[in-house]
Amino acid sequence: MKLLLLVIGKTTDRHVQALIDDYSSRVGHYVPFSLETVPELRNTHALSSEQQKTQEAELIRKQLQPGDHLVLLDEHGTERRSVDFASWLGKRMAAGARRIVFVVGGPYGFDASIHQLANEEISLSQMTFSHQLIRVLFVEQLYRACTILRGEPYHHE
């Protein structure tokens, strides 16, 4: 079982990247984890938002493998408390998928074809966060979920 976070474009703030690296390393102590970056589209000023989503969808599909459990991080997805997310993650990991692939989309969200491919959609909040910060928030939640599943004291409830 491997967890993969797929993101569009590089993280541009070195402080944000440092936090991502820290939490990614922590998650890696519990389960194989990687973060992969899909190159950001160039010359997007000539493209409509729909064209951008379509091109990003092609790049996302190229990263997927048969048998992946695809989870979109999307504002319209299901919200969960941290303990509920941990329980969900534990069940998904036990279900035997080779990889659980979480995807942070581009600035306009996901193309309809990616929504159709997805097994699930998760929302981290009703609030809107930058695509840079959502990476930190999500990797921290993965770490928190791992500690909850192991009964470790990181999460207080």
Kindly describe this structure.
By secondary structure, this protein is α/β, with parallel strands linked by helices. The protein is globular, with a radius of gyration of 15 Å. Helices cover 44% and strands 22% of the residues. It has a five-stranded parallel sheet with strand order 2-1-4-3-5. It contains five helices and five strands, in the order βαβαβαβαβα. It has one domain: 3-Layer(aba) Sandwich (Alpha/beta knot), CATH 3.40.1280.10.
Tally of helical runs? 5
Beta fraction: 15-25%
Count the domains.
1
- Helix-strand category: alpha/beta
Can you name the CATH architecture?
3-Layer(aba) Sandwich
Mean pLDDT across residues? 95
Morphology: globular
Question: In the CATH hierarchy, what is the superfamily?
Answer: SPOUT methyltransferase, trefoil knot domain
CATH topology: Alpha/beta knot
Major sheet description: 5 strands, parallel
Level-1 CATH class name: Alpha Beta
Q: Report helical residue fraction.
A: 40-55%
- N-to-C order of helices and strands: EHEHEHEHEH
Q: Kindly, what is the distance between the CA atoms of the first and last residues, rounded to a whole number of angstroms?
A: 28 Å
Low-confidence runs (pLDDT<50, min 5 residues)?
Answer: none
Kindly state the number of beta strands: 5
Radius of gyration: 15 Å
Kindly report the spatial arrangement of strands forming the biggest sheet: 2-1-4-3-5
